[in-house]
């Protein structure tokens, strides 16, 4: 049976250096690089990192902006990150992520409590910034 439930497939982030960004997301955030060797070999236009089995983040080099012609003005989005992307994690993964980010000196916010999200109120959450200025929120519900 095919499950046609709507899901988030991917988010495209504009980055200066996709290889350095993949390193950050692998080592600080704990995501698996996808197509990194192919990107480094020039075989694909950008690498990605895997959040889970269904969702990836594409690490689009800003130099690709001129090729974004699918809609009028799409190229103008280069360098304008979304407000933030939120990652919902299990409690232990939440704590491990914060520790890795702090070890790397990544900017992190104070911890908030009871912020509203897709599954109701999260017990704790915090924000962090990647090397390209993209803002993420990490949270756990349990």
Spatial order of strands in the largest sheet: 1-4-3-2
Helix content: 10-25%
End-to-end separation: 31 Å
Strand content: 25-35%
Structural class: alpha/beta
Radius of gyration: 16 Å
Question: Could you give the order of the helices and strands?
Answer: EHEHEEEHEEE
How many distinct helices?
3
Q: How many β-strand runs?
A: 8
- The pLDDT mean sits at 87
The low-confidence parts are: none
Concise summary:
Helix content is 22%, strand content 33%.
Question: Which helices and strands occur, and which strands form pairs?
Answer:
Elements: E1 10-15, H1 18-29, E2 32-34, H2 36-40, E3 48-52, E4 55-61, E5 85-88, H3 91-104, E6 112-117, E7 120-129, E8 135-140
Parallel strand pairs: 1-4, 5-8
Antiparallel strand pairs: 2-3, 3-4, 6-7, 7-8
